[in-house]
# Entry
Amino acid sequence: MKPFDLRSQKLVICLGPGGVGKTTISAALAVRAAMLGGAVDVMTVDPAPRLLDALGLEEDSSEPVAVALDGIRHSRRGGASSRARLRALRLDPKRTFDSIIARYALSDAERDTILENRIYRNLSGALAGVGDYMAMEKLLELAANPATDLIVLDTPPATEAIDFLDAPRRLLELLNSRAVSLLGAPGGLFRSQLRMVDLAARAVLAAFDRATGLNLLSDVQSFVRSFDGMYEGFSARAARAQDKLRAADTAIVIVTTAESSRIAQAREFIGALEGAGLRVAAMVVNRVLAELPDAAELTSARIAPSLKKKLKRNLADYAALKTREEVSLGALRDSLPAGALLMVAPDLGREPRTIADLAEIGRSISDA
Amino acid sequence: MTLPRVLFVTGKGGTGKSTVAAALAIALSRRRPTTLADLDRRLSAAAALGAMPRDSTAVKVTDTLDAVALTPRAELEAFIERIVPIHAISRRMLRSRTFGYVTAALPGLEAFLLLERLRIMAGDAALEDRYLVIDAPASGSAVELLSVSSGVKGIAPAGTLNRLADSIDGFLADATRFGAVITTTTEDLAVREALETAATIRARLGIVTVAAIVNCVPDLLFDTSELAAMSPLAGHARLAVRRNAAHEQAALIAPRFAEAGVMTISLPMMFTPGIGTAELTKLGRVLHARLLDQ
# Structure
């Protein structure tokens, strides 16, 4: 298991708070796995422009694009396997959603009704977990390809880890019969099945509509109702997504940095995942300060005393930051779930611009 | 310089947004009474000040500084309680999972109500002559939050909500009442996101960015000849280069913001084992000098 054994996984899901370099770590793990001889897909969400360049992706690469691994030495352990390849793609939630609607709609008319619905057009992006759910959908599509050994999934930045993994269930609940009957049923129908709170909720919406001039209720109703016939398809896909998350060869990796606020967030993630019965395989602490130089070296160095003094100060300054980092890492180590690996990815001191940079990060991710 | 009543602090995740919001609140509270409104569920800015507000009830930090917590959920609850006057029913509704679906199907409503709350708080702040510092969500979500009233106007061409949205948009675009403070580090990615955020909120909503805060800028310690002299000490040289590079990077950032009409303030890197009150006060002094002593 040293370093984190990517070859025994079929799916690696990187979760973490925003701004910790989740996309970089996902890409680095994918490059690493390809170097070890695997056929790898990496799906990114909103990558930085330079990372996009490094992976050779365009703004709208929503289908897998082959990434050239030229110039990167294949690891000897993996050999120069003919299987080895890396493909990257960028998740486009809206486009994926559109294609799902097209797939499950019972008729062209129904498809068009949904695609043209005001709610769908303006607000589908904000609907509970749609982006997250779409990542799952795309994942199932990629996983269906038998020529792929490993999929590395970058996820949208989440305030709560569970948001992402829970997305299929939440979307299903939104579309389930109770919600549909609540919002979708024309007045009078199914009324006996509704509880008082449901009726009250609908009354509030209606009052809200009257007071606001929004006339949203009818659009929400027709939106939810139009999903009625597609429920079966969604439900089956969501169940498959849930199975995939819990499969033995799926690894959930939490990415964080060593800042105390991010560590606190990462610990909450772990707790929430464990609460949902999901196992965290590893934690990667990104942008950890590299090993500091030896202080003794300075004492014996033959350099100007003024420079020596400055170098000592510089070392002391970074040592203070290192101390801050170690305190955070210590807290994390104490709260690590049993069996999970704690790994660190050193700070390159620059943004990754090339595949070689990603390979360097991938190689240097190591146990902490 | 005249600061707006409300300073909305946002920035890319990991750029020290909450630290800057806390330091800014400390800085402003030396001039006038100040309220820190924390929109972050973890309340990290309030926690940095040593306050743990539970809701929109103010918790006193010093004589001139207090902290409140604002959540979209609480705003929605207040709204529902307003339109469903029978307490027992509104309570049950809010607990109902089905009602959760309904609010999920009305996205933007919670965010909209949160903005309306900020507008009302800004009015109170003007009456009481106080500042309001907001620890806002990271830039992506913050832009979404700020844009929500335009979205509402798009789908409600008339009616109460449209009028409310109008007054929110007027509030956001009024430089005496509302301004953004955008945090960044010296990393290019964070700088780009800050520039993009400033441009987007300006173009879309007419929001003025009061300042871009470049966080964690180390002071310049070594000159070129010193860097050359230390080359035999490879490890130390790398560390020295790293420090100098970050400093030089920061110098290149200000012109990029100036081009966009945004003032930059550099905050020093705190080379300390932790960020506590002493560090926040130091950072606050820099902010005070640049924002208020002119």
Summary: The radius of gyration of chain A is 25 Å. The CA atoms of residues 25 and 71 of chain A lie 20 Å apart. Chain A has a mean pLDDT of 79.
